[in-house]
Design a protein that fits this description.
Length: about 250
Protein backbone atom coordinates (compact mmCIF):
# COMPACT_ATOMS: atom_id res chain seq x y z
CA UNK A 1 0.00 0.00 0.00
CA UNK A 2 1.19 3.47 -0.81
CA UNK A 3 -1.60 5.87 -1.74
CA UNK A 4 -5.29 5.08 -1.34
CA UNK A 5 -8.50 7.07 -1.63
CA UNK A 6 -11.26 6.73 0.95
CA UNK A 7 -14.88 7.60 0.22
CA UNK A 8 -17.83 7.56 2.59
CA UNK A 9 -21.52 8.47 2.69
CA UNK A 10 -22.05 8.42 -1.06
CA UNK A 11 -25.79 8.18 -0.42
CA UNK A 12 -26.86 7.24 -3.93
CA UNK A 13 -25.71 10.60 -5.33
CA UNK A 14 -24.26 9.37 -8.62
CA UNK A 15 -23.29 12.84 -9.85
CA UNK A 16 -21.16 13.58 -6.80
CA UNK A 17 -19.74 10.06 -6.83
CA UNK A 18 -18.62 10.19 -10.45
CA UNK A 19 -17.01 13.59 -9.83
CA UNK A 20 -14.85 12.42 -6.93
CA UNK A 21 -13.83 9.26 -8.75
CA UNK A 22 -12.76 11.34 -11.74
CA UNK A 23 -10.77 13.58 -9.39
CA UNK A 24 -8.99 10.62 -7.78
CA UNK A 25 -8.27 9.15 -11.20
CA UNK A 26 -6.78 12.44 -12.42
CA UNK A 27 -4.50 12.41 -9.38
CA UNK A 28 -3.34 8.88 -10.21
CA UNK A 29 -4.97 7.27 -7.15
CA UNK A 30 -6.55 4.00 -8.26
CA UNK A 31 -6.85 2.04 -4.99
CA UNK A 32 -10.27 2.92 -3.63
CA UNK A 33 -12.06 1.96 -0.41
CA UNK A 34 -15.59 2.80 0.73
CA UNK A 35 -16.56 3.45 4.35
CA UNK A 36 -20.25 2.71 3.94
CA UNK A 37 -23.60 4.34 3.24
CA UNK A 38 -23.46 3.76 -0.48
CA UNK A 39 -27.27 3.82 -0.42
CA UNK A 40 -29.83 6.02 1.32
CA UNK A 41 -31.08 9.60 0.89
CA UNK A 42 -30.39 9.67 -2.86
CA UNK A 43 -31.94 8.46 -6.08
CA UNK A 44 -29.33 6.19 -7.70
CA UNK A 45 -28.39 3.39 -5.27
CA UNK A 46 -28.02 0.81 -8.01
CA UNK A 47 -25.48 2.73 -10.05
CA UNK A 48 -23.43 3.62 -6.98
CA UNK A 49 -23.46 0.05 -5.66
CA UNK A 50 -22.31 -1.36 -8.97
CA UNK A 51 -19.38 1.06 -9.16
CA UNK A 52 -18.24 0.08 -5.67
CA UNK A 53 -18.66 -3.62 -6.40
CA UNK A 54 -16.72 -3.46 -9.65
CA UNK A 55 -13.97 -0.94 -8.94
CA UNK A 56 -13.31 -0.78 -5.18
CA UNK A 57 -10.91 -2.95 -3.22
CA UNK A 58 -13.17 -3.03 -0.17
CA UNK A 59 -16.28 -1.61 1.46
CA UNK A 60 -17.74 -1.70 4.97
CA UNK A 61 -21.37 -1.60 6.02
CA UNK A 62 -22.97 1.73 6.86
CA UNK A 63 -26.08 2.32 8.92
CA UNK A 64 -28.19 2.83 5.79
CA UNK A 65 -27.12 -0.56 4.46
CA UNK A 66 -27.99 -1.96 7.87
CA UNK A 67 -31.44 -0.30 7.73
CA UNK A 68 -32.02 -1.61 4.23
CA UNK A 69 -31.10 -5.13 5.30
CA UNK A 70 -33.49 -4.91 8.26
CA UNK A 71 -36.65 -3.99 6.34
CA UNK A 72 -38.76 -6.59 4.56
CA UNK A 73 -41.50 -4.43 3.06
CA UNK A 74 -42.23 -0.91 1.82
CA UNK A 75 -44.50 -0.49 4.83
CA UNK A 76 -41.51 -0.95 7.11
CA UNK A 77 -39.61 1.62 5.04
CA UNK A 78 -42.42 4.12 5.67
CA UNK A 79 -41.78 3.83 9.40
CA UNK A 80 -38.48 5.66 8.85
CA UNK A 81 -40.29 8.71 7.43
CA UNK A 82 -40.21 10.08 3.90
CA UNK A 83 -36.66 11.49 4.02
CA UNK A 84 -35.16 8.08 4.84
CA UNK A 85 -37.92 5.65 3.91
CA UNK A 86 -38.49 6.56 0.26
CA UNK A 87 -34.80 6.13 -0.68
CA UNK A 88 -34.90 2.74 1.06
CA UNK A 89 -37.82 1.76 -1.16
CA UNK A 90 -35.75 2.66 -4.22
CA UNK A 91 -32.85 0.61 -2.88
CA UNK A 92 -35.15 -2.37 -2.29
CA UNK A 93 -35.89 -2.46 -6.02
CA UNK A 94 -32.28 -3.14 -6.93
CA UNK A 95 -31.14 -6.52 -8.37
CA UNK A 96 -30.93 -9.45 -5.98
CA UNK A 97 -27.18 -9.85 -6.37
CA UNK A 98 -26.62 -6.23 -5.32
CA UNK A 99 -28.89 -6.69 -2.30
CA UNK A 100 -27.00 -9.86 -1.36
CA UNK A 101 -23.71 -8.00 -1.59
CA UNK A 102 -25.03 -5.26 0.69
CA UNK A 103 -26.09 -7.85 3.27
CA UNK A 104 -22.64 -9.41 3.39
CA UNK A 105 -20.59 -6.25 3.92
CA UNK A 106 -18.34 -6.38 7.01
CA UNK A 107 -18.56 -3.81 9.78
CA UNK A 108 -14.77 -3.41 9.87
CA UNK A 109 -11.90 -3.88 7.45
CA UNK A 110 -8.25 -4.06 8.52
CA UNK A 111 -5.56 -3.25 5.96
CA UNK A 112 -1.84 -2.83 6.60
CA UNK A 113 -2.35 -1.40 10.08
CA UNK A 114 -5.38 0.67 9.13
CA UNK A 115 -8.90 0.30 10.51
CA UNK A 116 -11.75 1.11 8.13
CA UNK A 117 -15.18 1.49 9.73
CA UNK A 118 -18.31 3.49 8.98
CA UNK A 119 -19.05 4.89 12.41
CA UNK A 120 -17.21 4.52 15.71
CA UNK A 121 -14.21 2.19 16.13
CA UNK A 122 -15.72 1.58 19.56
CA UNK A 123 -18.64 -0.85 19.12
CA UNK A 124 -19.03 -0.35 15.35
CA UNK A 125 -22.24 -2.40 15.35
CA UNK A 126 -24.07 0.42 17.16
CA UNK A 127 -23.31 3.01 14.45
CA UNK A 128 -22.63 5.66 17.06
CA UNK A 129 -21.04 8.97 16.10
CA UNK A 130 -17.55 10.24 16.74
CA UNK A 131 -18.25 13.95 16.84
CA UNK A 132 -16.79 15.13 20.13
CA UNK A 133 -13.74 14.52 22.32
CA UNK A 134 -15.54 12.07 24.62
CA UNK A 135 -16.52 9.85 21.69
CA UNK A 136 -12.99 10.01 20.31
CA UNK A 137 -11.45 9.02 23.66
CA UNK A 138 -13.77 6.01 23.92
CA UNK A 139 -12.69 4.88 20.49
CA UNK A 140 -8.99 5.34 21.13
CA UNK A 141 -9.29 3.24 24.29
CA UNK A 142 -10.47 0.25 22.24
CA UNK A 143 -8.39 0.71 19.08
CA UNK A 144 -5.52 -1.66 18.43
CA UNK A 145 -4.57 0.23 15.27
CA UNK A 146 -2.76 3.54 15.09
CA UNK A 147 -4.96 4.92 12.34
CA UNK A 148 -8.72 4.57 11.77
CA UNK A 149 -10.70 6.04 8.90
CA UNK A 150 -14.39 6.66 9.56
CA UNK A 151 -17.43 8.46 8.11
CA UNK A 152 -21.03 8.69 9.32
CA UNK A 153 -21.11 12.32 10.54
CA UNK A 154 -20.70 13.75 7.01
CA UNK A 155 -18.17 16.22 8.46
CA UNK A 156 -14.41 15.88 7.82
CA UNK A 157 -12.33 15.85 10.98
CA UNK A 158 -9.12 14.53 12.53
CA UNK A 159 -8.54 13.47 16.13
CA UNK A 160 -4.98 12.90 17.30
CA UNK A 161 -4.09 11.05 20.51
CA UNK A 162 -0.49 11.57 21.63
CA UNK A 163 0.09 9.65 24.83
CA UNK A 164 -2.89 10.86 26.85
CA UNK A 165 -3.31 14.20 25.11
CA UNK A 166 -6.21 14.54 22.68
CA UNK A 167 -6.36 17.15 19.95
CA UNK A 168 -8.95 17.75 17.24
CA UNK A 169 -8.10 19.43 13.95
CA UNK A 170 -10.47 20.78 11.32
CA UNK A 171 -9.00 19.78 7.97
CA UNK A 172 -8.35 22.34 5.28
CA UNK A 173 -6.87 22.14 1.82
CA UNK A 174 -3.30 21.55 2.99
CA UNK A 175 -2.02 17.99 3.53
CA UNK A 176 -1.95 16.88 7.17
CA UNK A 177 1.21 15.20 8.43
CA UNK A 178 0.59 12.28 10.79
CA UNK A 179 3.27 12.08 13.46
CA UNK A 180 5.07 8.99 14.63
CA UNK A 181 3.99 8.03 18.15
CA UNK A 182 0.48 9.42 17.74
CA UNK A 183 -2.76 7.64 16.92
CA UNK A 184 -5.45 9.09 14.70
CA UNK A 185 -9.13 8.89 13.84
CA UNK A 186 -9.79 10.52 10.47
CA UNK A 187 -13.31 11.28 9.30
CA UNK A 188 -13.20 11.47 5.51
CA UNK A 189 -16.40 13.50 5.16
CA UNK A 190 -19.23 12.77 2.74
CA UNK A 191 -19.27 12.35 -1.01
CA UNK A 192 -23.00 12.65 -1.56
CA UNK A 193 -24.29 14.82 1.26
CA UNK A 194 -21.70 17.01 3.06
CA UNK A 195 -22.94 18.60 6.27
CA UNK A 196 -20.23 21.12 7.06
CA UNK A 197 -21.91 24.04 5.24
CA UNK A 198 -19.80 23.25 2.17
CA UNK A 199 -21.71 21.60 -0.68
CA UNK A 200 -18.58 20.35 -2.46
CA UNK A 201 -18.22 16.57 -2.44
CA UNK A 202 -15.56 15.39 0.00
CA UNK A 203 -13.17 12.44 0.22
CA UNK A 204 -9.69 11.76 1.59
CA UNK A 205 -6.38 10.45 0.25
CA UNK A 206 -3.80 8.70 2.43
CA UNK A 207 -0.14 8.27 1.52
CA UNK A 208 1.28 5.59 3.81
CA UNK A 209 4.91 6.20 2.84
CA UNK A 210 4.82 9.89 3.73
CA UNK A 211 2.14 9.42 6.42
CA UNK A 212 0.11 12.25 4.96
CA UNK A 213 -3.66 12.69 4.71
CA UNK A 214 -5.29 15.30 2.57
CA UNK A 215 -8.90 16.11 1.89
CA UNK A 216 -10.31 16.80 -1.54
CA UNK A 217 -13.37 19.00 -2.15
CA UNK A 218 -14.82 18.48 -5.60
CA UNK A 219 -17.44 20.49 -7.46
CA UNK A 220 -20.19 18.65 -9.29
CA UNK A 221 -23.46 19.49 -11.04
CA UNK A 222 -25.68 19.92 -8.00
CA UNK A 223 -28.65 21.12 -10.06
CA UNK A 224 -28.49 17.93 -12.10
CA UNK A 225 -28.39 15.83 -8.93
CA UNK A 226 -31.32 17.75 -7.46
CA UNK A 227 -33.35 17.11 -10.60
CA UNK A 228 -32.61 13.38 -10.34
CA UNK A 229 -33.75 13.37 -6.73
CA UNK A 230 -37.03 15.13 -7.46
CA UNK A 231 -37.75 13.03 -10.55
CA UNK A 232 -37.33 9.93 -8.38
CA UNK A 233 -40.04 11.18 -6.04
CA UNK A 234 -37.76 12.11 -3.14
CA UNK A 235 -38.92 14.86 -0.81
CA UNK A 236 -37.75 18.38 -1.65
CA UNK A 237 -35.57 18.48 1.47
CA UNK A 238 -33.45 15.68 0.02
CA UNK A 239 -32.64 17.86 -2.97
CA UNK A 240 -32.40 21.31 -1.36
CA UNK A 241 -29.87 20.29 1.29
CA UNK A 242 -27.31 19.39 -1.40
CA UNK A 243 -26.80 23.03 -2.33
CA UNK A 244 -26.52 24.12 1.31
CA UNK A 245 -24.06 21.47 2.49
CA UNK A 246 -26.31 20.43 5.35
Amino acid sequence: MSTIALFSDIHANIDAFEAVLADATDLGVSEWYCLGDVVGYGSEPGGCVRIVREKFLGCVMGNHEHMLNSVSSNRECDEWGALVGWPLKIARRQPANDRTWLRTLPLVLKKDGLMLVHASPWRPETFSYVDNDEDAKASFETMDDTLAFVGHTHVPAIWEMHRQNLRQAVPGEAPVQLHQGSRYIVNVGSVGQPRDDNPLACYAIYDSERRVVWFRRVAYDIAKAQKRFLNAGLVSRSASRLAAGE
